[in-house]
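Model it.
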Amino acid sequence: MTQKLNEFKNYLGTDFSEFTYCLMVICIIYFFIFLPSYFLLNILERKIIADFQARVGPRLVGGKGMPQSIVDFFKLLQKGGGPIIKKQEFFGFCMQWGALFYSIAVLPYGSYLFLIDTELSMFFPFLGILIFILSTLFLGLSRERVKSTLGHLKIVSQAITGIFPALVCILSLGVCLDGFNWAALIVFHGGFFFHWMVFTNPFLFISFFIFVISGLIIFNLPPLEESLSLLGGRGYVSSEYSGGQAGLFSLMRFGSLFLWSVMSALLFLGGWTLPHALQVLLDTKRLFLLTQCLEVFILLTKTFFLMIVILVLSAVTPRLRTDQVTDFSWKVLSPLALFCLIGSAVLRFV
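Modeled.
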């Protein structure tokens, strides 16, 4: 894959510097992948959940209510942002957004939308996730209110319990790949579903579900999201935002789910891999733009499917308390992840 990336850079020309290329990739990721995905998933979520619950949607917007999510987002941005944000709070918000954007940017979105590929590149998003968790704690302490502080502390304590099984699942993949870089993973993946990592052995099949559930625990996403309670929790934290802050909070929630779904698709569901014959044809004719568009489409299709499944399940699943979620992570997910690690190692070296 590194060779293909170098061919693409040579195709762009010698005047195209590394800095310009990185800036182009970041702009494409945020403005042509992330933001359109946010509005599209909002629309799909509203339509699917409304049909699932037999609710009547908006009738006056036009387009069968499809643009309603976009309209609501910009309406929120125009409204007041609630109470004045202190310097510490603003710093916490900046840390959260910076960590989230960093984690999204270091993921590969195709053969040519690639920023980082080292021997440990699979662990790079976790650095941003750890900063995200730290900024959540800092944000809760900066509010100087008991409910908000306890709510954010509960979120952080739950997130820490989800990190361990997720990292163990990455180790299970590394054992099978003899490395932790994206290039080796994509080469291992095949164009057909039976070549995906999730189907290579039964232990990775279990690891896939452990990894997805761990992400929901880390980011406190539904259905493992604590409901509104007296002491706080995510429900109370979200109720503190209004106007533009609520819109940005919604975007951050989507970013968390999007990040973890893309990681799951890349690690276990084949990523953007095309059928071998089609890939050879596109490489031979040097159709770089068409290749990249197809790869992004395949990756986003898998990502959206996973996100919609999670959102539909969250609509019919009751919420759990933080202690129930943390017990489930330490007593069920973590031992299962270690079992899968040992099983993958045995299958690999025996």
